[in-house]
């Protein structure tokens, strides 16, 4: 036997021992489907969920310092790969803006980690008590096409910091870039910690793979980020679901607002990634006394005005109408225009807008489809209201009770308070752009899943934990 053969045999044996140490002692059933060639990428939901369970068991043994290592790694990868992955996602999904896709990935570094797991404790005459935040196990995360890799990355930071493994079912429209990111994360996590398949993904996601995850015994919790259909499906799955659902954020501008600042803020938030963000400004209600000044301010700030006939033509292309059971028709969004550039939409409207235009706007009645529907494109209907009370009421109606996000521009504390109380939303931004609600220009931490429907709010590490209490009776209370 020559030296080369001996080395090959030794390497193989060492690799086998390492493999057994990593996964061998995990009490999990045999693999039901072959693993994909790329680490973490699987053909079936069951194989992906089972692998994530094994990954999570490995993480559990390694401890909390390893969680910190992993989330720091994921954050630094997102910063390093922001441009490359932004381009990849933009090329695949063909929606939104490249510069903002890159910005979303560089923002992952600001998502909170284990610092959100500070235990709560008491000490007194009867001893001591501590409540700690334990992982659920494996979380099945369903992600949207509007921010595929950013949602996955943000979910990984929060869920792994909490000690969980994750199996992803991405939107089919953004599944390629999602699988590439998962493979890269896994390889890096493996290289650094020896843990395999901590975060996994189904290569070709479908409604069937979603249903399989809902049924899988390896999945302990669902986390859904998406529109109404997937939220309903997850809530009926029989598993606990954290649901970051749809929004249709209104803006109210009253007579005390700084109109130029309001206009610039609406362009910043409503134009971000061509209005793909669920928190983005979707419709504006302006009180009558400052309506024409606001329209001028919006133009000065760079928004492009579309006359009524162009707004009507655009609506005809963007929405189709279906008859409801009761005989009323309701608008259905043509998804081909979601996240399109303002200049392209101006052409669809039968006109043109200067290159670089970020937002189109029009003077609209309160019941137009741009107001009613979450259109996810940089077209902002501006509605005239008699006074602030009517503006707030119209804003409330247009939000459809999602309790997601709302924005107000005003210097009147009573009006701001009235709107905040009426909307009762997860995010209420005053005198700034909607994105200030996610820490971009305002205080607060960021994340891409805002659990509106189920009420957990902007998700943090703590969202993905189980609270557990440990009590010592009549002892260890050293404060006498
Ligand atoms: P979408 O609802 O079409 O898809 C979201 C995910 O759900 C995808 O993975 C998709 O494959 C899956 N899905 C869709 N219908 C399903 C069904 N019936 N059963 C099982 N799975 C299903 O949404 P989208 O277009 O990708 O994203 C935009 C929507 O998501 C908007 O409504 C937006 O407001 C919402 N959103 C919310 C948040 C938040 O944090 N609250 C964040 C991003 C997006």
Describe the structure.
With 480 residues, the protein is an alpha/beta fold. 41% of the residues lie in helices and 19% in strands. It has helices spanning 3-24, 45-62, 64-93, 98-106, 148-161, 175-193, 207-215, 228-235, 259-270, 291-300, 308-318, 342-348, 369-372, 388-398, 413-423, and strands at residues 41-42, 120-124, 127-135, 138-142, 165-169, 199-202, 221-225, 241-244, 250-253, 283-287, 304-305, 319-323, 329-333, 360-363, 379-385, 405-409, 427-430, 450-451, 457-458, 465-473. Strands 11-14-15-10-9-16-17 form a seven-stranded parallel beta sheet, with helices on both faces. A six-stranded parallel beta sheet has the order 1-6-5-4-7-8, with helices on both faces. Strands 2-3-20 form a three-stranded antiparallel beta sheet, with no helix packed on it. β18 and β19 (457-458) form a beta hairpin. α3 (64-93) packs antiparallel against α6. Mean pLDDT is 92; it is low at 1-6 and 13-36. The chain binds nicotinamide-adenine-dinucleotide. Nicotinamide-adenine-dinucleotide binds next to α7 and α8.
> What compounds are bound to the protein?
nicotinamide-adenine-dinucleotide
Largest β-sheet summary: 7 strands, parallel
> How many β-strand runs?
20
Report the oligomer: single chain
């Amino acid at each position: 036997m020559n030296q080369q053969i001996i080395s090959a045999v030794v390497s193989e044996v060492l690799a086998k021992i390492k493999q057994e140490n990593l996964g061998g002692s995990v009490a999990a059933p045999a693999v039901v489907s072959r693993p994909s060639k790329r680490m973490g990428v699987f053909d079936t939901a069951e194989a992906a969920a089972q692998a994530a369970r094994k990954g999570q068991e490995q993480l559990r043994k390694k401890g909390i310092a390893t969680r910190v290592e992993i989330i720091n790694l994921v954050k630094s990868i997102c910063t390093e790969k922001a441009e490359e992955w932004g381009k990849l996602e933009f090329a695949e999904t063909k929606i939104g803006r490249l510069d903002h896709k890159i910005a979303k990935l560089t923002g992952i570094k600001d998502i909170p980690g284990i610092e959100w797991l500070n235990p709560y404790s008491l000490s007194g005459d009867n001893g001591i008590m501590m409540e700690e935040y334990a992982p659920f196990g494996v979380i099945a995360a369903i992600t949207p096409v509007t921010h595929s890799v950013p949602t996955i990355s943000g979910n990984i930071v929060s869920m792994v910091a909490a000690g969980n493994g994750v199996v992803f079912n991405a939107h089919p429209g953004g599944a390629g870039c999602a699988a590439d990111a998962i493979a890269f994360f896994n390889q890096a996590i493996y290289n650094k910690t020896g843990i395999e398949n901590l975060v996994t993904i189904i290569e070709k996601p479908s409604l069937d793979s979603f249903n399989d995850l809902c049924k899988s015994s390896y999945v302990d919790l669902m986390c859904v980020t998406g529109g109404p259909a997937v939220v309903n499906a997850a809530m009926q799955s029989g598993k606990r679901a954290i649901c970051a659902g749809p929004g249709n954020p209104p803006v109210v501008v009253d007579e005390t607002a700084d109109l130029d600042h309001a206009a610039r803020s609406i362009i910043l938030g409503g134009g971000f990634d061509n209005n793909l963000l669920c928190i983005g400004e979707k419709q504006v209600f302006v009180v009558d006394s400052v309506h024409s000044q606001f329209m001028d301010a919006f133009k000065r700030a760079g928004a492009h005005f579309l006359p009524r006939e162009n707004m009507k033509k655009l609506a005809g292309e963007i929405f189709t109408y279906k008859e409801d059971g009761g005989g009323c028709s309701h608008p259905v969004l043509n998804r081909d225009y979601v996240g399109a550039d303002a200049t392209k939409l101006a052409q669809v409207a039968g006109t043109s807008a200067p290159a670089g235009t970020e937002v189109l706007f029009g003077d609209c009645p309160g019941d137009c489809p741009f107001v009613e529907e979450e259109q996810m494109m940089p077209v902002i209907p501006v509605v005239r209201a008699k006074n602030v009370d009517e503006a707030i009421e119209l804003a409330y109606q247009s939000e459809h009770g999602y309790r997601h996000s709302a924005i107000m521009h005003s210097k009147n504390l009573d009006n701001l308070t009235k709107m905040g109380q009426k909307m009762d939303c997860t995010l209420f931004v005053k005198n700034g752009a909607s994105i200030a609600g996610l820490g971009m220009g305002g205080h607060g931490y960021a994340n891409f899943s805002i659990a509106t429907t189920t009420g957990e709010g902007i998700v943090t590490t703590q969202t993905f934990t189980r609270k557990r209490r440990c009590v010592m009776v009549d002892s260890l209370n050293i404060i006498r």
